[in-house]
Specification:
With 186 residues, the chain is mostly beta strands. The protein is built from two helices and eleven strands; from the N terminus they run H-E-E-E-E-E-E-E-E-E-E-E-H. It has one domain: Immunoglobulin-like (Sandwich), CATH 2.60.40. Helices cover 12% and strands 40% of the residues. The strands form three sheets. Strands 7-8-5-10-11 form a five-stranded antiparallel sheet, with no helix packed on it. Strand 10 and strand 11 form a beta hairpin. This is DUF2808 domain-containing protein.
Length: 186
């Protein structure tokens, strides 16, 4: 009975009080982490030189902390995608919005090949943000390319919350036209 009462009181308090960051042993956590809404590309064929990969996140109202940085790391795919970090951008809203957000340092971890995008200033709760990464070119091989997305709140140190995989499909028309063309004509 006491645990039910405590749960009801906690639920009521969470409705009336703004979410506060959670700190455990000095590390900052999101109360409610951002959500990976989707990933897409402007060019989905092999060797495309002018592609942009978009990763869209939603930061809930009750996140407890602003979004400080995001890491995007290729997890799967036949070919390694290399990004031109100087062309990285971020937008308020989705990729069609062109309201740019301030970025801090954008780096590449040489060992893991993860791209880290820092926001300056951090993105407040209740916002949707889209990160635009520019590959040097699309991969040489078609297939599904998975990119793990991790979000970090403000704070030092901050715990990175894995949000899931952004999926980018790249098509190779050289093989599609041969293997998938109709064999018989009526």
């Amino acid at each position: 009975m006491k645990s039910q009462f405590a749960a009801i009181v906690f639920s009521l308090l969470s409705l009336t009080l703004p979410a506060q960051a959670v700190q455990v042993r000095g590390t900052t956590y999101f109360v409610s982490p951002p959500r990976l809404v989707g990933a897409s590309t402007t060019q989905n064929h092999v060797y495309a030189w002018s592609a942009t990969y978009y990763f869209t996140l939603e930061i809930p109202d009750n996140s407890g902390e602003p979004l400080q940085r995001v890491t995007i790391a290729q997890d799967d795919g036949v070919d390694r995608v290399r990004f031109n970090l100087k062309e990285t951008e971020a937008f308020d809203g989705d990729r069609r919005s062109r309201t740019k957000l301030g970025l801090g340092e954008v780096t590449l971890d040489e060992k893991t090949k993860a791209v880290t995008v820092n926001f300056n200033p951090p993105i407040p709760a209740g916002k949707r943000v889209t990160i635009a990464l520019a590959p040097e070119r699309n991969p040489a091989y078609g297939g599904v390319y998975l990119f793990g997305v991790t979000a970090f709140p403000t704070g030092d140190p901050a715990y990175g919350q894995f949000l899931g995989f952004g999926r980018i499909s790249i098509y190779d028309n050289r093989f599609d036209s041969f293997f998938f063309r109709p064999r018989f004509r009526h």
